Amino acid sequence: MLPTLSGRIQTRIFLLAVVGSIWTLIITPVLPTGASLAASYGATFSVLLVVLVLGVLWEFVYHGIQQFRWEKDWPTLFGLLTGIPEGLLVWFLFAGGAIPWIDSLPGPAFAIHFVSTWLIVWLVANGPMRVPFIHWRINGGRLI
Q1: 23-74 pLDDT tens trace
Q2: What's residue 130's pLDDT?
């Protein structure tokens, strides 16, 4: 079955909240931020939060675009490539100071964090997630 809009949103929230948070806890201490560990964690978890919130909004845009496709779904690799416009938008928001509660994150640190998190979340969604959540794909990607 094809993922439904609510299934895509639920999956995105679940994966970013669980897998993204665990990965952020692991990678933040080694990122080249030049800031204290607390400030680095604040910045990286802010990136994760902004990606999650904007990602839910992106899902509505993607859903609208998918309605023009016969299958009403993306090819698997295209799901990976959707990280490019999302990453650029989040970077411009941080670099432009549009995220008021945190200072800007250095470009290399942002790129390493965003790209690695996006890749890991995509890999989990297209691999291991199908084992513990057998009915996840059958139920249109819905977890609840």
Answers
A1: 999 999 999 998 899 999 999 999 999 999 999 999 898 888 888 877 767 7
A2: 76
**How far is Cα 144 from Cα 139, in angstroms, rounded to an integer?**
9
- Domain positions in the chain are 5-130
The rounded distance, in Å, linking the Cα atoms of 134 and 47 is 30
Cβ neighbours of 47 (radius 10 Å):
25
127 burial (CB, 10 Å; 0-12 / 13-18 / 19+) is: exposed
What are the residues whose beta carbons fall under 8 Å from the beta carbon of 50, sequence distance 6 or more? 90, 93, 94, 99
At 74, list the tokens: 């993306």
